[in-house]
Amino acid sequence: MSQQVILDELANAVQTFDSDKVMDVSKKALAAGIDPSVIIEQGLAKGLRIVGKRFEDGELFLMHLVAAAEPAQKAIKELIEPEIKKRKGERKSAGKVVLGTVAGDIHDIGKSIVGAMLIAAGFDVHDIGKDMPAEEFVKKAKEVNADVIGASALLSTSLPVQAKIVKAFKAANMRDKVKCTCLAVLPVEA
User: Fold this and answer.
1) Which of 46, 64, 96, 136 could form a disulfide with 11 if both were Cys (CB 3.0 to 4.6 A apart)?
2) Greatest mean pLDDT among 128-132, 159-163, 185-189
């Protein structure tokens, strides 16, 4: 079976919300020697983009987005990320990244995909989870001596928290030591 056939099968499994099939095809892709970052981008993320487009077009509902995202996220966490870390070996780190979803927001599939891609690119990623206040970003950044902070927000109501994170780093005299990146739908003034 060709690499493209496996990746298409994976994207289709995401689109049909079939959790077992997403896991099985992800395992098949890894067993076939497909690069983990390709599995994410051309399989899982491709399926999620199609579901997202169908949601935007009014063909699907929010529950469908969640139904597609959950198995994709599970495959990334349980299968893809461990394989990326295993393959990493003794490769020199490209830097340390702290990722989290900001306080007031519990959406994390995008953050998880970004985290997996950063791991594949050679970064050490420290995911602090979702619904995290600014202080937790600062605390973890100090703990791991982070180079980059990724603050994810999907809800417009949680976007102002990203500005609070930047201000918290300024207050901790760390703003010049780390790059703060806001992963958001809309730009945030800081």
Assistant:
1) 46
2) 128-132
